[in-house]
Design goal:
about 140 residues, 5 helices
């Protein structure tokens, strides 16, 4: 029962956290000034409905909906998060992509060591990653 509650509340908590870090200037925690309003709207329109669907699927407790939500979660959050932050951290980026990362995360709080010129995931994104992991664990446990 607790895992089901977590499977419902974690996507909603992630949605609230993403809203805060994408729209509210908390520098040096985030650098929303470097992101256009158009990009923020795109992030909002892709994240919030999907996270609400995931929460709704687990709230209803219908197995096929929960599996569908888990598949979407895997594609849109698991793969995207790894490709966006961890692959660049360990393997690097093109010069143009590197400049874009530096512009968007300039001056934000990081705790991981820099590897050469590769981008370092900031703490803001690491917390989002923690919520994503909790969302996965909760979903798996709730479906089990």
């Amino acid at each position: 029962m607790l895992w089901m509650i977590s499977a419902v509340t974690t996507p909603l908590a992630l949605a609230v956290y993403l809203f805060i870090i994408n729209w509210i200037d908390l520098f040096p925690w985030n650098n929303v000034r470097a992101v256009s309003v158009r990009r923020k709207l795109l992030l909002s329109l892709t994240n919030y409905p999907l996270l609400c669907f995931i929460a709704w699927a687990f709230l209803l407790g219908i197995h096929v909906l929960m599996v569908g939500a888990f598949v979407m979660m895997s594609i849109f959050y698991g793969i995207f998060y790894i490709v966006s932050w961890w692959i660049p951290y360990f393997y690097g980026l093109s010069e143009r992509q590197q400049q874009e990362y530096e512009r968007k995360s300039a001056g934000t709080v990081t705790i991981l060591p820099r590897i050469g010129k590769r981008p370092v995931p900031n703490v803001e994104r690491m917390i989002a990653g923690g919520l994503i992991v909790l969302m996965f664990v909760s979903a798996i446990q709730a479906m089990g």
